[in-house]
Amino acid sequence: MPVPAAPATEHPPVRVARPRIGLLGVMQPLYDDMIPGITEHQAAYAARVAEQLSEVADWTVGPPVRGRADAEDTVRGFEAAGLDGVLVVMLTYGPSLRLTPVLSRMRLPVALANIQPDPRVGASWDMADMTYNQGIHGAQDTANAMVRAGLPFEVVTGDWQDPAFAVRIDRWARAARAVTSLRSLRVGVFGYPMNGMGDARVDETALMRVLGPEVHVIAPGTLHRTMAGLPERAVADLMEWEDGVFEVDGRLSAEERTDHARMQLGIEQLLEESGCGAYSTHFDAIGEDGRFARLPMAAASTLMAKGYGFAGEGDVLAASAVYAAHQLAGDGHFTEMYAMDFPSDSVLMSHMGEGNWRIAREDEPVRLIKRPLGIGGLDDPPTILFRYRPGPATLASLVALGGDRFRLVVTEGEVIDAPELPSLEMPYGQFRPENGLRACMDAWLRAGGTHHMAMNTGARAEDWRVLCELTGVEYVRV
Locate the L-arabinose isomerase central domain: which residues (predicted)? Predict the structure, then answer.
């Protein structure tokens, strides 16, 4: 189905599902005789924590875990419910070895909240208050056991009623959602990857073991047959939607627009049928097939705007990164560094013609243009043209280092309000790294950063860092 229309001057991020998080509260029966009712007292505290954080996630609060069997039952329930992650909260001290075996088998991302009911030590405290607020050494015991077991996890220390604590939990919850989504992701590859492009090559079984994405090859002929079988009404509806959202180039013929619309709808139908949340096309795989009139440029832009991951040239790594960028912030965008501009200390960002138009400037129309393109040897592909919106931005590159070793290279900076490039008929913008073009590029190359990457608007480096903490992927900020 076509994308719901956005207002002409606004391009809000795609809506992604709220994170669904389980709260695992830990204590032990040792204190029952000393403080009658302590289990109910601390269960109410766990419920208040979830209520305080209700704006950042949908919460499932398990009953207080008082031993290994309780932990097993609660975690099984979280996994059966398809939650995105588990927040461990020490309701009192809880011995770690009752919990660690359960966490070591659990696939859901974990954060350890180092918090306590009361934010300060009071003069009126007695032994009961000490017991209610002693979570810190349970957190230390549990974290130590998890480190020794080699389990990835995030830690958030703070006053649970402080807005800053909610910000950090929100970041972790979105990263947990991204990690869980990657573990079930399928990346559709139409045809084959670009020959000779080394930084996009990856051991697919290693990628699946470490991060989860599965590569699903789709024959170009399947796309051709799907396009032919589409109902005329669906094609007309998509073109009508485009008329309302984009400034459409009058030079585009009805044949060009119809063919493009069929390609977009055909790609999306195949992605839905095969359960793919991301995909990649390579111009040679489309061009050499012999049955297609043009490349699916505009299709990639609007499918990214709908929330699909995308990368060109069969690049599964970048397509997975763009998909994760959607899960983190809702505006994942595929791009690459084209050329350095030393006077402005920036780098020109673009690709052949694909880009998420939800990151477009809001003071200029997004245009659907007739655009000649020699690459692929086909007819002119309708292309969505826009300039990137000025402001903070983050680039992230997923790097395969061999075996099960992966690295994420990240840099923050800003898209500058650079002069227009009237002859450039593809999405573009100029990115100025926070540490300067020369230092950033030196470090990017030393770290093996790839030439395809995901982009988000905003400062998102910490979001990516947390994702790496939860997966064991090496994080390098340049």
Answer: 191-325
In angstroms, the CA 254 to CA 228 distance is 16
Taking the C-alpha atoms of residue 170 and residue 166, their distance in angstroms, rounded to an integer, is: 6
CB contact set of 6 (below 8 Å; sequence gap of 6+): 12, 245, 358
Query: Which domains are assigned to the chain?
Result: 20-182 (3.40.50.10940), 184-477 (3.20.14)
Residue with tokens 């189905």: 1
- Which residues touch 230 (CB under 8 Å, ≥6 apart)? 262, 265, 266, 269
DSSP H stretches of helix in 154-251: 163-183, 204-210, 220-228, 232-245
Pair 280, 189: CB distance under 8 Å: yes
Higher per-residue confidence, 9 vs 433: 433
pLDDT digits (tens, 9 = 90+) for 88-144: 999 999 889 888 899 999 989 999 999 999 999 999 999 999 999 999 999 999 999
3-state helix, strand, coil in the chain (%, to 5): 40, 25, 35
Instruction: Check whether 353 has a pLDDT greater than 90.
Output: yes
452 backbone dihedrals φ, ψ, rounded to 5°: -105, 145
Among 420, 447, 189, CA closest to 318: 189
pTM over 0.85: yes
| Amino acid (1-letter code) at residue 31 | Y
Q: Are 453 and 369 in contact (CB under 8 A)?
A: no
Helix or strand (DSSP H, E) at 186: strand 186-190
Residue 224, Cβ density class (10 Å: 0-12 exposed, 13-18 middle, ≥19 buried) = middle
Sheet holding 110-114, edge to edge: 58-61, 20-26, 85-90, 110-114, 154-157
Q: Which residues contact 105 (CB under 8 A, 6 or more apart)?
A: none
Q: How confident is the model at residue 10 (pLDDT cuts 50, 70, 90)?
A: low
What percentage of the chain carries pLDDT values higher than 90?
89
Look at residue 8 and tell me whether its pLDDT is greater than 50: no
Least confident of 9-18, 90-99, 126-135, 187-196: 9-18
Q: Per-residue pLDDT for 235 more than 70?
A: yes
Helix axes 316-329, 461-471, angle to 10 degrees: 110
Across the range 406-415, mean pLDDT stands at 98
pLDDT in tens, 248-270: 999 999 999 999 999 999 999 99
Q: Are 138 and 26 in contact (CB under 8 A)?
A: yes
Task: Please name every residue paired with 59 in a beta bridge, in sequence order, or none if there are none.
Answer: 21
Give the DSSP per-residue string, 104-159. HH--S-EEEEE--SSSS--TT--HHHHHHT-HHHHHHHHHHHHHHTT---EEEES-
